Amino acid sequence: MRILFITSTRLGDAVLSTGLLAVLLARYPRARFTIACGPVAAGLFEAMPGRERTIVVTKRRYDLHWLSLWRACVGVRWDLCVDLRGSAVTLFLAARRRAIMRGGRRQGARVAHLGAVLGLSPPPLPVMWMAAADRALAQAMLPDGPVWLALAPTANWAGKVWPAAHFVALARALRALRPEMRVVILYGPGEAERRMAAPVLAAMPDAVDAGGGLALPQVAALLARCGGFIGNDSGLMHLSAAVGTPTLGVFGPSRMSEYGPVGRCARGIAAPGPEGSAPIAGLEVAPVVAAAVDLLGWRA
């Protein structure tokens, strides 16, 4: 059986879609999967069982990337095509069945919209696949002993970035409750991400700098070793929730009702004001500390 699964170019959306893949893997354990996704998300699927191929879809002018994807897929007779991008690509492929996500703004959680593509309600939780080597690296970087707390102080646009000084004050308040706590700083690749994380790294010289250079399964393995995660609305937040780490997402103008973290132990906290326009700097440190203490169970 051959399954084509077209998912997002963005990391967070791609993470949210992994629950659908887990359902399909359970239904069709002998199926061979081809994943089509953006460059940032490609690493999510490296250790996925049943994956035959990943097609990296790089956006091109005039939507020519869809033509490239069609050319890469047209020679196969597919048993199932799942298209979460709502494109026309699968309509021009030989396929026994198709499940296409339609566009347009919808109310409610994004993960519920994704689940509806396969008729799944409630929707499945996101997952993450890791290899033994990824777990071994994480063990070496974050050895047993300390309580590791992951902070992710970056995001893909400035409006979603909680001030660096707030992250520092948050970490100090939590360390006062758990002196054995150590901080792990996570951020994405590239100089822009490094610059956003730099003030937090400078203020906490004993923190583990785990940003920029790790593959996504390695980052996931690090997160799985952490006792908690606090970060901006980002792909890292969704990845943390997917591995089951207690996750607190910090929201400003992005919509927490749609993109709040989804996992066994995950929640969000939003800046005061109308959803979709509330400045994230308006979210004070104290309520985030209180939400983190409640989530993590760290009492004085």
TrEMBL record:
Signal peptide region: none
Pfam families: Glyco_transf_9
GO MF annotation terms: ADP-heptose-lipopolysaccharide heptosyltransferase activity
Listed Gene3D superfamilies: Glycogen Phosphorylase B
Keywords linked to the UniProt accession: Glycosyltransferase, Transferase
Cellular component annotations (GO), alphabetically ordered: cytosol
Protein name: Glycosyltransferase family 9 protein
Lineage, top ranks: Bacteria, Pseudomonadati, Pseudomonadota, Alphaproteobacteria, Acetobacterales
